[in-house]
Amino acid sequence: MRKNLSGMVKFVFFAAATAFCFSACSKKNTRTVSRSMQNIRQIEELHVSHEWFCFDGNSIKETELPSVSASASEKPWTEAVRISCAASVPESENSLYKAYALVNRCGLIGFTEDGADLFCDNSLFLDSSVQGLVFSSGSPVFYLYRSTFFFDEKKVSNAASGVQTVRPFLVEFDSRSKNFYPLVSYENMNLEKEDQVTGCFWNGDVWVVGVKNGSQSEIQFKYLWWKPPVALGDLNPALGGENFFIRKSSEQEYLSVCLPKLFEEAPLELKTLLKALPESFSFYVSYRDDSGTTPVSYYHEGKSEQSVNAVAMTSAGKSYSAVVFADGTVFVKKLGFDKVSAFRLPKLPDGFVYGEAAVAGDVMYAAWEEGSSWQTKRSGFIKVNLADIL
């Protein structure tokens, strides 16, 4: 297995260094996942009540089905309106929401058991892609970047460039004031205009950042290491340089953080959720625990040629743990109980897949989107009450 894994490690190294290739390949794999999932025992499609929602400009609208949702032009995935990250909030008295989702080129959604609220800020989101959702004292923190492959500097909007005097890197959302606050700027990180962040990993103590620079024919990489001396929410771009003492990291140090681990090293909770999968099944799962830090990825290499992707999570208050595959196959359990329930979310039309997911109380929200391997059209999310299933 370890001999075969070396090929995967080389692939992920290239992926970690080149954000476009990694994400494009991942999205391509998810669009063919249904064929591989047929190897798993038949799991019943969900028949309990659920609600569909789609994005229509800077608003969320309820829709009867994804196939009849508001139309959207096809765009590269870094430029399209779509959910790029989702996570449950670690237990905290400071948050009015139990889960959040980042909406690329649009804003951020706050989830409760009752519904979803979308918050937009054109000065931040209109001309930047968004990724890397983590938490600081219950408040969501994320980073902004621009794809050097797809982003056209000449098309930078006046709405965004006219407001920003410095380019934000890390941003916090305050659920009480409903405002976004820049915490760290690209200038603080000593990053150039041409630099693209390809990976940003936070373990609760240290940030490790991967950056690429140059044309597509000649790309250079650099790696940064940073340990904030104060809590993330106490940072401000105007603070002195001692708060942004950033040292150069190495490729080896960066990869030691971002490379996926073997599934044998996964926490027991995640292993329990996926115990029904046959040993021959190859999969890659990104797992968020309740720490509010960057998710950790695990890889199992079976005999199946196609490795399928999934997201896994432990919800706020440690009430549920769940795994969601791109075809809608879900494994879920109440924490503290042994029983694992399996079901399928409603089947999506051809060309649609499920993506990021998070749990708010007894309700699970799962993103869906339409598109090709590297482009996205329509997108939105489904709302499902887990209490009706377990």
Automatic annotation (TrEMBL):
Matches recorded under Pfam families: DUF8086
Q: Does the keyword Signal apply?
A: yes
Q: Which UniProt keywords apply?
A: Signal
Record's superkingdom? Bacteria
**What InterPro entries does the database record attribute to this sequence?**
DUF8086 (IPR058399)
- Which segment of the chain is annotated as a signal peptide? 1-19
This protein is called Lipoprotein
